[in-house]
Structure formats: C-alpha cells, structure tokens
UniProtKB/TrEMBL annotation:
It holds the Pfam family BPD_transp_1. It is found in: Cell membrane. Residues 78-287 form the ABC transmembrane type-1 domain. This is Putative aldouronate transport system permease protein. GO terms for biological process: transmembrane transport. It comes from the Bacteria. GO terms for cellular component: plasma membrane. Its main location: membrane. Keywords: Cell membrane, Membrane, Transmembrane, Transmembrane helix, Transport. It is a multi-pass membrane protein.
Amino acid sequence: MFKTFSRQKQYDTMFDIGNYLFLTIIMIVTLYPFLNVLAISLNQSLDTVRGGIYIWPRQFTFENYLEIFKYDDLITGFVNSASRTVIGTILGVLSSAMVAFTLSRADFQGRKAISTIIVLTMYFSGGLIPGYMLIRDLGMINTFWVYLIPGMVNAFNIIIVRSFMDGLPYSLQESAKIDGANDFTIFWRIILPLCKPVLATVALFVAVGHWNSWFDTYLYNSQNPALTTLQYELMKILQNTSMGSVNANDMRGMTQDQASQFVSPESIKMAITVVTVVPILAVYPFVQKYFVQGMTIGAVKS
C-alpha cells in the first residue's frame, strides 16, 4: 500500500515537472517574438543593421519612435482611429445584441429563416467592386460614417451573442412581462446585464477590428487627410521607409552625418508594430475576466 502510494506520488511529481517545463517552453516561444520586436524598436538604427538583436537592445534609444511621430498626419490619424474604435465598438455591440435578442426570442416568427440568411452572409459577399459602388451611391465616400455603418452588424458577433442568450432562462422574460415590462425594458435591464461576458468578448473583437483597419481608409477616404487613420498613416510610413532600405554594405559609404540621420526600415517597422499593439494590450486586462467567460460559450451543456 505504501509502495503504491509512493510510486503514485513520484508519477505525479514527474508529471508536474514535465508540465511546468512544457508550459515554460510555450511561454518562451510566445513571448520571444514580441520581446524581439520591442528590442529592435528601442535599438539605435545604425546598430540594428548589424543584426544580432534578440530580447534586449544593444544601444537603447527612442529615436525610432520620435521618427514616426514627426509625421504631421499621425496625430489626426490617431484621433480618428480612437474615435472610430470607441464609437464603432459601442454601435457594433449594441446592434449585434439587439439582433441577437430578437432572434433568440422563442415567439419570434421566421427566426430560423432570418438566421440562415445571416449565416449565408459569412460565406458569400457581393465583392469589392459592388461594395464600393454601394458605398458611393449611399454618399459615404469621404465621410466618417464609412468607418461605422458598413460593418456595424456582424453575422459572427450575432451568432456568438445569440448562443449566449439561448442559454438564459426564458422564464426571466416571461416574469418581466407579467410585471408589465415591455421588450425594450427586458432587453436593457435584464438581458444586457446578464450578457456582460459575451458582450465584452464581442467588444474586444470589434475594437481590434476597428483599431487595425486601414484598407477602408485606402478605398474610401484616401483623398481626405482629415479622415485618415493611424493604421493607414503607419502603412504609408512603412512603405516610404522600405523604399529607401539599405543593408550593412551600403552603410560603409555613408558619411558620419548621414549615418547619424539614418533610420533603418527594420527599426521603423518594429516601432510601428509596438505603437499598433500597445493600445489593445492596455485595454485587454480590463476585459480579460469577461473575455475568458465569453470564450467558454457552449463548452458546457446542462
């Protein structure tokens, strides 16, 4: 009996050690790319061309970030990106929740047909040219609304929210109706507070999509500098910097003044990556608890 217990304890200890080693390797593999990007973005550009930078900069500097923020339209782009992210997230979450609430109602006639139509939009679309013609005919070219309205209702988000609402007891709505509550009161005061986990999950998806979006700016608002976005401006900086890329051999022919003013494309690229990622990383801790709960939707069936 004692030998069996001792052997089982050894097996458990070996399993724990192996598990910790495996998770440590996974953590290193996950963190290394980001640490490498951060190190290159904080390293002096002239030194970056030599290569060999891993997780710590050899010559620490902020010149790469200062070079990015020299562009005049960057502040305008940041304001527009922040505005579209906040407004677009609120509109996207509310619209998806309202549609999902309607489709989750057992007394709603035709909900299966409408749900099927919504799902079909995930597999088929009109295409880029018809989409552009539609936006043009609606008069949203060179307007801020083109960032908000076209993607306000998302089929995937509707399915996620509806799946969560289907798990809520329908008796809650029936009890509220008996007490005299209308549909809007039921949605706003009962359903939405119970859907915080899934709404936080959807909000994170929508916010990341708005924050990282630049192609709609390129298509619809590229002729209006006042409506530019941060990602679009960073993309232009990256393109302009890449066109003037040089290697270590080219550096030998530079004078000292030229070398001191040189900013490598690799450093700019990494600095742009950090500028893009940091705002989302700053928001994620506040929604992490709800995000984890929302991602487990449908994992357990009662």
